[in-house]
Specification:
Layout lengths: L3 H10 L9 H16 L2 H9 L4 H18 L9 H9 L7 H13 L9 H11 L2 H17 L11 H6 L2 E4 H9 L6 H14 L8 E4 H5 L9 E5 L3 H11 L9 H4 L14 E2 L17
């Protein structure tokens, strides 16, 4: 059990826990949450948190609470020390809600009986190397694939041809508005930065197009909208979505059955999305139960 000073610091880090409780109840709840999520590493992390600014404490607390939500009440498991290090040194500087969602998922998925699984280091490092716009772009497109490909028969996303079939068209205006909203970045700068950035690190396949229906139709299937953002999933991008959801090592073959929609509360689903090669009728309202 962390000492009183460490416990008080942990309470400050998770200020949302026990907002309507007494100080003693809030401290017990926050400390219990840290211990449940971090296991034996909780005391050492609590000690390190004492040096953090209010800004960094709040960010760590956000990631921990999101990890607890994604863990679904599971109490067992130990976080690898290297994963905890990424959380402290990188995650504490991330004040973006969606980045915290991704890091929380990686943290929730990293707990194992002996704490030897450090795969979340790679995924957390990848997330923190991206801009908030790039993380948002990844989330917007892969959440739609999670919804619209769910249960589609005879689609093995482990094969390049199948991933090509999963190509998606996003209506340009709706996608750009969702991408750059509250970002202080102009659409004409934010969109190429995001899509090309994901391509560079393998989070999207190189089969993509941005432009008018006439221009895109000349080199592929007819675009679904007058102006479109067309993208294709990659193996790495599919797996990262699984870690963000809290599923370690989600295989591309399991994506169709295990990937779920989440995050509607802070970033609504997109309506104007079509899969040129696959006939699906999934709308945001049809997937509300999976959120």
């Amino acid at each position: 059990m962390p000492d009183p000073l460490t416990a008080a610091t942990i309470t400050k880090a998770i200020e949302a826990v026990g907002a309507e409780r007494s100080r003693e109840e809030a401290q017990a709840a926050a400390t219990g949450l840290f211990i449940r999520m971090l296991g034996p590493a909780a005391d050492e992390i609590g000690e390190a948190l004492r040096r953090f600014t209010e800004f960094r404490l709040r960010n760590v607390g956000r990631v921990i609470t999101k990890a607890a939500d994604k863990a679904g009440g599971t109490d067992h498991g130990i976080v690898n020390p290297r994963v905890a290090q990424v959380l402290l040194e990188e995650g504490s500087y991330c004040d973006d809600e969606l980045i915290a969602e991704y890091l929380g998922g990686a943290l929730a998925a990293s707990r194992t009986p002996n704490g030897r699984d450090d795969r979340a280091v790679t995924w957390s490092g990848l997330v923190t190397s991206l801009s908030s716009l790039q993380v948002r772009a990844h989330f917007l497109v892969y959440r739609e694939w999670a919804a619209r490909l769910h249960g589609v028969p005879d689609l093995n996303l482990g094969l390049g041809a199948a991933r090509h079939r999963a190509m998606a068209d996003f209506e340009y205006g709706e996608f750009v508005r969702a991408l750059v909203n509250d970002s202080d970045v102009a659409p004409q700068e934010g969109l190429p930065h995001s899509i090309l950035g994901l391509l560079r690190v393998g989070l999207l396949d190189d089969q993509y197009a941005i432009g008018s229906r006439a221009a895109i139709g000349a080199s592929g299937p007819e675009a679904s909208f007058e102006k479109v953002v067309r993208v294709t999933p990659s193996v790495v991008g599919l797996e990262l979505y699984g870690w963000a959801q809290g599923l370690p090592g989600l295989s591309v073959t399991d994506f169709l059955s295990k990937a779920k929609v989440f995050g509607d509360q802070f970033l609504p689903r997109l309506d104007k999305v079509k899969l040129p090669f696959i006939s699906v009728s999934t709308s945001p309202s049809e997937n509300a139960a999976d959120s």
